[in-house]
Amino acid sequence: MTDRLLRAMTRAGARGYGAERVSELAHALQCAELARGAGADQELTLACLLHDVGRFAADPAQLSDPVGGERPDGGRGHHEVGADLIAPFVPERVAWLVRMHADAKRYLCSTEPGYHDTLSPGSRHTLTRQGGLMTPEEIARHAAHPWFRDALRLRRWDDRAKVVGRATAPLAAWEPLLRTYFR
Ligand SMILES: [Fe+2]
């Protein structure tokens, strides 16, 4: 599984990320590095590295929210597909954080004035496909979850991890962490 992920991430380095200007791999590396730099624990950092695994390691035809693509009938969001893909290998919290990263965006758009305007065009584009704004009941339910604060931290690093040309450690630097979980 680690090899499969590494291959998928390497391929993702050659691929654009929908409307974003960085590759999917650069985005994942930047996100994980922001997390590590901020002192995130190993599980949260791993979730950051793999939060878009549903985009780069699964069949895009099964996604309901492809970046910059046509919406197929049915399908599920990349956050759901990605979380299910890694769930057999990682602690529950890691898969949960991956699953939550679209809801974290919906939450911030619903609760934080001005947040929506800071999103990249690609992120704004997929918001509707991911459920749009939250109801007050959804907001309260998410806010009460003990891991939701981590989901919001991941989301903010996700939003910032789209800088063209930012230098990061290579993918190989994350191989030991991946091998710890994906055996
Ligand atoms: Fe992302």
Secondary structure elements and pairings:
Blueprint: H1 2-12, E1 16-17, E2 20-23, H2 24-37, H3 42-50, H4 53-56, H5 78-86, H6 92-111, H7 115-118, H8 121-127, H9 136-143, H10 148-160, H11 175-181
Antiparallel strand pairs: 1-2
Helix pairs in contact: 2-3, 2-10, 3-6, 3-10, 5-6, 6-10
This protein binds fe (ii) ion.
- What can be said about the biggest beta sheet? 2 strands, antiparallel
What general outline do the C-alpha atoms trace?
Answer: globular
User: Could you give the count of β-strands?
Assistant: 2
Low-confidence residue ranges: none
- Secondary-structure element order, as H and E? HEEHHHHHHHHHH
- Measured between the Cα atoms of the first and last residue, the distance is 6 Å
Describe the protein in words.
This protein has 183 residues and is mainly α. It is 58% helix and 3% strand. The protein has eleven helices and two strands. It has helices at 2-12, 24-37, 42-50, 53-56, 78-86, 92-111, 115-118, 121-127, 136-143, 148-160, 175-181, and strands spanning 16-17, 20-23. The protein has a two-stranded antiparallel ribbon.
Give a brief rundown of this model.
The chain is mainly α and 183 residues long.
What are the key terms here?
single chain, 183 residues, mainly alpha, 11 helices, binds fe (ii) ion
